[in-house]
Amino acid sequence: MVKPNRFRRRLAHFTLKATLYGSWILGLFPFTFDPRKRQLHSSRWLLAYGLVLNTSLLVISLLPASEERSPVKVEVYERNPLVKQIEFVVEIISLATTLVSHLRIIFERKKLMGLLNELLQLENRHFSLLETGDCERFDKYVIQKGLLIILEVGSSLLIYLVIPEGKVVLMEVVVIYVIQFELLLVVSHFHMAVLYIYRFVWTINGQLLKLANKMRRGEPVDPDRVHLLLQLYVRLLDLNDRLASIYDIQITLFMATLMAANIIISYVLIILYINNSRYSILIMILGIPQSLIVNFWDLWLSIATCDLAETTGRKTSTILKLFNDMGSPNKELEQRITEFTLFCSHRRLRYRHCGLFYVNYEMGFHMIITNILYVLFLAQFDYVNLKYK
């Protein structure tokens, strides 16, 4: 029988590999891996393949739709013109997010390759040699992210099945869902990198805690060990800032897309429940609510991933206080600890997108409140059209 923690690690490893191979197949990761040097190399063939494939998909998706609107959509649009206008805004934001994501893959690939190679170098030269233990949260967050990619596409398919269109062109439907899947994969690249940085910082915290316990028992602590951990921590924060600068526009637009989608879904849900006698129970239960739940879960996991890394960074300062509380006769060790503490007090592991906001739980609660307020404003603004006559 497979132990739960072993199964969890295998599932997390499978999720990472599936994300990598899926990105290669869809032309979203224009790099090849050299197993001998354990480094990534830019591939012109993969770049050209991704450019041709994704340009073709975007062109097909922008062609005039040949399908007919379903009776449900026609009725909602005719009786609530505001819904149609909001949906158009959501489509514009989604299109902008998709275009920017693909363009950033092309223009930021050298920066991204350098960043990923440094992470691989840190893993191979340092962190693989440290006693890390079982990082349970890393595995759980990776698994959740992979599961949510499937749920997001599945949620859209379920809405399509519950609220079918009139005449559907299969190619158009496939193209739309492939583009959605691609966008979710691109966003997952950022969150997977954040989780790796979190795991490295978590490892540093574990090493510092071991040294603190060793010092409490009266055993000698090597100052060079603390200095090495400080150097690794400095490099990780530098990589973290570079990662945020590469993905800040894409993640900001993606979060705006999820927020706008949640607003329109919530508003449509209010309309359907007020006029529940006109619609089937499948639309009321399976169609709209499940999509809202999946979107909120995806948005919250994006926030929780960044907050997890930020919280782990704050714990480093807490662990360093243990050394200061115990004191040390070793002046060199005391100097190393002071340097580490000063660095942590001046630089923190945080994610600030486009210089506008930090991504953490506090911002997440603000976003939820904003979603609710927007839905209330829309209901008050268009309350005359909520109840069908």
Low-confidence stretches: none
Average pLDDT, all residues:
83
Q: Residue share in helices?
A: over 70%
Major sheet attributes: 2 strands, antiparallel
Distance between the termini: 61 Å
Supply the helix-strand structural class. mainly alpha
The shape, in one word, is globular
Beta-strand portion reads: under 5%
What's the count of strands? 4
Rg on CA atoms, Å: 24 Å
- Number of helical segments? 12
Name the helix and strand elements from N-terminus to C-terminus, one letter apiece. HEEHHHHHHHHHHEEH
* Widest beta sheet: strand line-up: 1-2
In short:
The chain has twelve helices and four strands; from the N terminus they run H-E-E-H-H-H-H-H-H-H-H-H-H-E-E-H. The protein is mainly α and 389 residues long.
Secondary structure elements and pairings:
Elements: H1 4-25, E1 31-34, E2 39-42, H2 44-62, H3 71-79, H4 81-107, H5 109-125, H6 136-162, H7 170-216, H8 223-274, H9 281-287, H10 289-326, H11 331-346, E3 352-353, E4 357-358, H12 361-381
Antiparallel strand pairs: 1-2, 3-4
Helix pairs in contact: 1-6, 1-7, 2-7, 3-4, 4-8, 5-8, 6-7, 6-9, 6-10, 7-8, 7-10, 8-10, 8-11, 8-12, 10-11
Structure description:
Helices cover 78% and strands 3% of the residues. It is built from twelve helices and four strands. The chain has a two-stranded antiparallel sheet. The chain has a two-stranded antiparallel ribbon with strand order 3-4. β3 (352-353) and β4 (357-358) form a beta hairpin. The longest helix has 52 residues, at 223-274. It is globular and about 80 Å long.
